[in-house]
Amino acid sequence: MTPNWDDMRVFLAVAREESLSAAGRQLKIDPATVGRRIARLEASLEAPLFTKSQQGYLLTAAGERLMEHGLKAEEAMRAAAGAMAGTSKTLSGQIRIGAPDGSANYLLPQVCAKISDANPDLDIQILALPRVINLSRREADMAVTVSAPTAGSLLVQKITDYKLHLVATRDYLASYPAIRSIQDLSGHRMIGYIPDMIFDRELDYLVDIGVDRVALASNSVSVQLRQATLGTGVCVAHDFTLPFHPNLQKILTDQVSLTRSFHLVRHQGDQRNERLNRFAQALTQGIREEVERLEAQVSP
C-alpha cells in the first residue's frame, strides 16, 4: 500500500520531534490520533518505523528509508504550494527561521516585524538555538549561520559582514587596573562561551585573542552581555548589540577588531519555491540594513 500524504506528514512530524505529543502539537491533533496514524502506516507497510526509548521515538532502518522518500515528497509539496503562493502580492502561511541567539535576539525581531507589517497573513517563527540548525529534518525553513556549510544539498548566500570588539562597563573599567594591551586582559575576569559548547569555530573569539581562561561562561550571547552590563568583567560583543547596552564601552579597538559574516542557508529543493525566495530576499536585505543601521550608532 502506498502511504498517503496525510500519513506521511504525521510520520515526518514524529521523526523530527521524536515524540507523539510534540508531533501532535505541531499538527494540532491529539497524541492518541498521532499514535493510531503511525500504527496504521506501519501496518500498511508491514514494517516498524520507530522504536520507543528513553530518548523518545527513534527511527528504525525502515523508518530512515521512508524518511528519505518523505522529505522528497515534502519538498515537492512545498514547491507546488510556493509556486501558487508566489502569484500573490503578499506572503501567507508559516515560515520558520533558525538562528544563533545573537542575531535571533538583536536583529531578527525588528527585521521580521517589518516583513510582517508588509505581509499581515504571514506567520514568522524565530528558532533561537545555541547549535547548528538541522535543515535536513526541517527544524526550520531556512537558517542564519556564521559559517557557510560545505556539506549537504544546501543553498548558501552571504548576507553581510559584522564587527565585534571587546567591551566592559565604564564602572568596571574605572574600578579595575587599566587595560592598555591584550596582555593586560590576564588580570581581568573574562566572559565568554562555554569552551566545549562552542558549536562553530567562528565563535571561538577569545582563543583568537589569546585568552585561555573564561571565568564567567554561557552558551548564550544574551547571557554573556547581561553579565557584562552588570559590570562583572570583559567580553566580546557584536557591535550591532551595543545600541541596546549603552553602558558598555569598546576597549582596545586598535588591537582587537574581529569581523565575521552571516549566511542564509536553505534547502536546495526550495530554490523553485517562489514564496520562500521572496521571503529570503526580504530577510537578507532586512538583516543587511539592520546591521548597517545599528553599527552606525556605535562609536569607533
UniProtKB/TrEMBL annotation:
This is HTH-type transcriptional regulator GltR. GO terms for molecular function: DNA-binding transcription factor activity; sequence-specific DNA binding. Signal peptide: none annotated. The gene is gltR_2. Belongs to the LysR transcriptional regulatory family. Residues 3-60 form the HTH lysR-type domain. GO terms for biological process: DNA-templated transcription. Keywords: DNA-binding, Transcription, Transcription regulation. InterPro entries: LysR-type_TF_proteobact-type, LysR_HTH_N, LysR_subst-bd, WH-like_DNA-bd_sf, WH_DNA-bd_sf. PANTHER family: HTH-TYPE TRANSCRIPTIONAL REGULATOR, TRANSCRIPTIONAL REGULATORY PROTEIN.
